[in-house]
Amino acid sequence: MNNDAEAIKPCYPLFQDDEYQQMLSRKREGREEGYSADKVHEVFMWTTSEEYKELNFSREALTIDPAKACQPLGAVLCGLGFEGSLPYVHGSQGCVAYFRTYFNRHFKEPIACVSDSMTEDAAVFGGHPNMNQGLQNAYTIYQPKMLAVSTTCMAEVIGDDLNAFITNAKNEGYLPQEVPTPFAHTPSFVGSHVNGWDNMFEGIIRYFTINEMESKEVGSKAKINLVPGFETYLGSYRWLHRAMGEMGVDYSLLCDPTEVLDTPADGEYRMYAGGTSIDEVKDAPNALDTLLLQPWGLTKTKKFIKQTWGQPCSDISVPIGLEGTDQFLMKVSELTGKPIPESLEKERGRLVDIMTDSHAWLHGKRFALWGDQDFVMGVTKLLTEIGAEPTHILCNGANKRWGKAMRKMLDETPFGEKAEVHVGKDLWHMRSLVFTDRPDFMIGNTYGKYIQRDTAYLGKDFEVPLIRLGFPIFDRHHLHRNCIWGYEGAMYIITTLVNEVLARLDEETQKLGETDYNFDLIR
Amino acid sequence: MSSMNRQESEALIEEVLEVYPEQARSDRAKHLTANDPNLDDASKCMTSNRKSVPGVMTQRGCAYAGSRGVVWGPVKDMVHLSHGPVGCGQYSRGGRRHYYSGVTGADSFTTINFTSDFQEKDIVFGGDHKLKKIIDEIEMLFPLNKGTTVQSECPIGLIGDDIGSVAREAGKRIDKAVLPVSCEGFRGVSQSLGHHIANDVIRDHVLTKRYDERPEPGPYDVAIIGDYNIGGDLWSSRILLEEMGLNVLAQWSGDGTLAEMEETPRVQLNLLHCYRSMNYISEFMEEKFGIPYMEYNFFGPTKIDQSIRDIAARFDETIQANAEKVIAKYRPYMDQVVEKFRPRLEGKKVMLYVGGLRPRHVIGAYEDLGMEVVGAGYEFAHNDDYDRTFKELGDGALIYDDASAYELEEFAKRLKPDLIGGGVKEKYVFQKMGIPLRQMHSWDYSGPYHGYDGFAIFARDMDMALNNPCWGALTPPWKRT
């Protein structure tokens, strides 16, 4: 127990103290009617077995530890990326509390977002009055330049019509006509947060361009559009700005939340900061082309740009890893006629240098990974580029077509031969895979720490460390400020991977006089 | 002494409300007041537990959060299924840090996110069939579970699924508790109704189960009600009660088990910490089983000492003597903690905005450290919470119910607190403004804060929040005057 004000113990190690341990065992043995320690151990061990894996993969209805979230979360992130824009969620208020909290915990930043707090009466009579009041209040109090409106599952189930509601709210004077209110229906029971971003983005470009296409002409401005998709690494956006700047390309990054998610601590809270301007969105159809940086998650956007803007929406892959970045820059160069400058060529050279320096530690190392569609595809590609072997690749929100494309990509490299692709599976599936086909490391978001802990139960030698890449990352600070796109991003990913490999090697070889044969000063 | 008198507080409220459109202004005005410590009845001066104003950035959650996140979620040997689309379970996973002791995945399930991940077809055709299958799959993969609660998300009630009948049948089939909890997020006005709904399910499905077979209660049998073991709070409380000689038969619901809940009707006394979330079930047990309940407060030595004595007064001289021993045992250490931290915190002003019981319960702990609470408010309180709060605060202190983000910012700008106790949604806003904030929902990933052990940690945390040198770095040297 605590008894020294100079050395106050928090939960750990406080609860390791004898008094607490005795109390816990008294409770366990006297009150809980639990199972014996042997029985619990036996069942736990069974959950790590091949037999359990078969059972686990036989389930059809239950999802356990999903590797995805719901649509409106993505819509909120998208809404944050425009100048003076306030995400507005039509539906239950609890959802917005969750979205804000989820992003608070990942970014360690304030997240502005409102809902119109629909309750039982709205469930019966519809959320129309909520929207009238909500738009009026949100606009009056927070004075946004635009309200990016999306829905929760409640509003979707009762069938509220955003277009009609918003139009009526404006006609009835609750909101000035000229305040932009792009919207998207984002049912939580369809797709994932990735689709929510796509839907909201499509809603935004539709709102600002659909009725103004006569004055637009593809290529009338010698510029390109870049669409990031659900991207949470702020450095990735910043790399894009830098790379395009160095190329001298005229471009619009359509949706850029980097400033609002990274405002300074200087005594002032800025609810709005930076972001793509509405003028840029309006002018986007005049560009030569729009590049979708996470194409697997931007299908609705792609359809709209091709059909309405008439732009080619050229195929690229997410610019993660060497080849992905090469192809991206070459496409930009091809579209704009601007050569790839020496500065980027040098940066590429540095990446290759890093790869040559580190490949020996990564070659043949086996990684299980999960995350969103494009992220997983990009990281898998990068792993094979450096001679590492992806073992189990899991995407909860992907479709079969994605699975086939992954397979094709893996079949093109000897390092992908043994990899298995799991579409629509969750992290409890991943847990089984990690136990039955142990990788050297896992790559994924914070949720993987539970799998790591469970592997450690089998002993330190069996423990599979988690390398934190993706979203969300709640339990490490500031990783979201890094970059995972472009040459710079590949450098960060490789640096992270190789140093985790080396840290693990140190850990394994540091037992004094016992395992320290490979405990070297120089790696 | 409060920093503002009543007139000043009222004037501030008027001024802050000016920005609102008329309807919202008149609505919000009812939720804000200046404290009068002599008032007994909150309904005379303010309104609470009403719908939030649409479009205003409320910090409130929903009924599902109240049931899954607060009341049921911490019961460790049951599976709590987030029934509906994928998001609610994902966002509430592991967020509240209600610690438990057990082997997760084998005999404990609290931090695992079980969801039915509703798809469009489940909305169109109903999800009852899927639910039936899910319960069988839970049984197949987690055989040591003691039961399942079905925590309904918004669509369930809207599409008219009959989870009650699915749960009843499934419960018979697998011979375990399968409990339907209709805590859809749109119900009620905040998480508060979720607490109530969860309590009602305990009342209807858990408490009467073993009542007839109950043995006579032991003279010192008690239960802890309404402690969720955030950062281990319940353990640092329970250890004191046991040291007093009380026999803690059950704890609700942090680190709790179904068996403990079922056994609760044989205790002599229910000890209620979070009144807001579990007064319903405590009252029910009083009426139905004749078990009295009493509220207590384990924040800060003053309140802990008082609570320990109040609890002991319900028992015989042995317990009362033990209580004095416990208080005496920890007194030197508490003095040492206060002696160390009070000089660093004396005279500092605190603003609170939390849920449940904390906006009033922690006031004494701050006062033990020489600090003054100049404003307090709740996300989802009812009038009876404010009745209890008036007495704890100084004259003229600001009181705000269901405060919007905008109001909190404006109040903070004016009151200039040295520290804010709030939630993660407020944390980064105020820290940008240069006001340290400790999360008083999750203890900012520290804790426990309950009991004597907890107070030491609380004092240390408040000191490190307030006196960190980084707060002095907000203005660059070239801009300092």
Automatic annotation (TrEMBL), chain A:
Record's keyword terms, sorted: ATP-binding, Iron, Iron-sulfur, Metal-binding, Nitrogen fixation, Nucleotide-binding, Oxidoreductase
InterPro entries on file: ChlB/BchB/BchZ (IPR050152), Nase/OxRdtase_comp1 (IPR000510), Nase_comp1_CS (IPR000318), Nase_Mo-Fe_CF_bsu (IPR005976), Nase_Mo-Fe_CF_bsu_N (IPR024564)
Cofactor(s) this protein cannot do without: [8Fe-7S] cluster
Short name of any one Pfam family annotated for the protein: DUF3364
Gene Ontology CC terms: molybdenum-iron nitrogenase complex
Keyword Nuclease among record annotations: no
Cofactor note: Binds 1 [8Fe-7S] cluster per heterodimer.
Keyword ATP-binding: yes
Chemical reaction(s) catalysed: N2 + 8 reduced [2Fe-2S]-[ferredoxin] + 16 ATP + 16 H2O = H2 + 8 oxidized [2Fe-2S]-[ferredoxin] + 2 NH4(+) + 16 ADP + 16 phosphate + 6 H(+)
A GO term for molecular function: iron-sulfur cluster binding
Domain Nitrogenase molybdenum-iron protein beta chain N-terminal, chain residue ranges per copy: 1-56
PROSITE patterns: NITROGENASE_1_1, NITROGENASE_1_2
UniProt EC number: 1.18.6.1
Ranges for domain Nitrogenase/oxidoreductase component: 70-501
Function: This molybdenum-iron protein is part of the nitrogenase complex that catalyzes the key enzymatic reactions in nitrogen fixation.
Assembly and binders: Tetramer of two alpha and two beta chains. Forms complex with the iron protein (nitrogenase component 2).
Family indicated by similarity: Belongs to the NifD/NifK/NifE/NifN family.
Stated name of the protein: Nitrogenase molybdenum-iron protein beta chain
Automatic annotation (TrEMBL), chain B:
GO molecular function, one term: metal ion binding
Pfam family, one: Oxidored_nitro
Cofactor: [7Fe-Mo-9S-C-homocitryl] cluster; [8Fe-7S] cluster
EC number(s) stated in the UniProt entry for this protein: 1.18.6.1
Spans annotated as Disordered: 24-47
Function (record text): This molybdenum-iron protein is part of the nitrogenase complex that catalyzes the key enzymatic reactions in nitrogen fixation.
Protein name as catalogued: Nitrogenase protein alpha chain
